[in-house]
Amino acid sequence: MPCPQLFIALRDNMKTALGPELEHLVPAASSSFLQELVAVRRRMHIYPGLSNWEEHASLEVRGALDFMGVAYDYPVAGATGVVATIGSGAPVVALRADMDALPITEDTGLPYASLEDGKMHACGHDAHVAMLLGAAGLLKKLSENGELQGTVKLIFQPAEEGFGGGMRVVEEGWLDGVSAVFGMHVWPDLRSGVVATRKGTIMGASDKFKMTYKGKGGHGAMPHKTQDPVLAGSAFVQGVQPLVSRYTSPTSAAVISVTRFNTGDGAQNVIPASVNIQGTVRALTTKQGQDLRRRVTEVAEAIASLHGLEVEMEWAKLPYGATVNDAGLAEMLMTEACANEQVCEWLDEPTMAAEDFSFMASKVPGLFAFLGIRDEAIGTVHGLHTPWFRIDERVLTTGVGLHVRTALALLRRFQVPHEL
Ligand SMILES: [Zn+2]
Ligand SMILES: [Zn+2]
């Protein structure tokens, strides 16, 4: 049960995020609505499901939609995804939330911390689901009032964390006939309640590699009798960095981070027969990410041939492209979706974190935004994907309001004018 202060903040934030035009929706966000908003999020937090195993989240979503009388399709993009539909006719716009958790052991000490060993909602997707369900409740109310001119699809997708649930949503045709799609992510680098977005690229393209150099091991005192993969591996670590500093335009940006260098656990005076090196590549455009994949492979092969080694290179099966916002939609978020008293900001720069929302935003015009959750006073300062990650639940209603206002703004934008 949320404490009274949380409750009051949720109600205030709901009012602010809906703005004066939608004030008549505030009673619909009743006490039980706010309680359930928090409760859904906490239940999901207690029972996290990894990518493609989001059974609990899927049950929560379907249970809530059934309760609200909202129609939906299921399963979507695998066994757990759900697409709800509210309203009818053209235009059709979409809102999206992801549902999966991460293989991380929670260390927050929260009373509703994960009960599943080694699984945690450390990316806030539990909050994303709760906010979109809250939006479903209010959009349903608008639809019943005859205030919804068109159709809103609410996409609850599985497997964002590296498994491309968003791609499956696109492949299965759930965005066919959709004019635009909106998604948001809770963001610990932004002050609580702040909404921020950007025109163009907001999140980078992401790729991962695993590489093995195979040589000939031997005594460390007789290196001339070996083919040393450690030396070659070191050359690789150094050799890929010029791809950022010399190959990438100075006005663009890219990241190549070697994160693992494993020579095995042999004796200290033995040169191993192989080394395994792993890392990640990030770029600001999908094309740049593809180019860097090719160039990193070339560097790996050139160094292998120089040192007389074999090389095995394995890349991510599903690299994520850059998430690119439609400029007009980003402007719309600032001017129409953000209610008057709400703090909305332009982001100075994109982040190199990646999102599988990119698959959706490359199919139809996309709009992605960050919702701040940072508040030192309550300790919501830890990064995404850490065991200490926490969100500021007071912003749950800010997210609900933003979804609703964005959906309405999108419907207005894509309205087909009546013939005179
Ligand atoms: Zn994540
Ligand atoms: Zn995430």
How would you summarize what this structure contains?
It contains eleven helices and 16 strands. It is an alpha/beta fold and 420 residues long.
What are its keywords?
420 residues, alpha/beta, Aminopeptidase, Alpha-Beta Plaits, 2 domains, 8-stranded mixed β-sheet, 4-stranded antiparallel β-sheet, 16 strands, binds zinc ion
Give a structural overview.
This protein is an alpha/beta fold. It folds into two domains: 4-203 and 321-413, Aminopeptidase, CATH 3.40.630; 205-315, Alpha-Beta Plaits, CATH 3.30.70. The protein is 35% helix and 24% strand. The protein is built from eleven helices and 16 strands. An eight-stranded mixed β-sheet has the order 1-2-4-3-5-16-6-15, sandwiched between helices. Helix 1 (4-18) packs parallel to helix 11 (396-413) and helix 9 (327-337) crosses helix 11. The N and C termini lie far apart (54 Å). The chain binds zinc ion (2 copies). The site of one zinc ion has 4 residues, from loops.
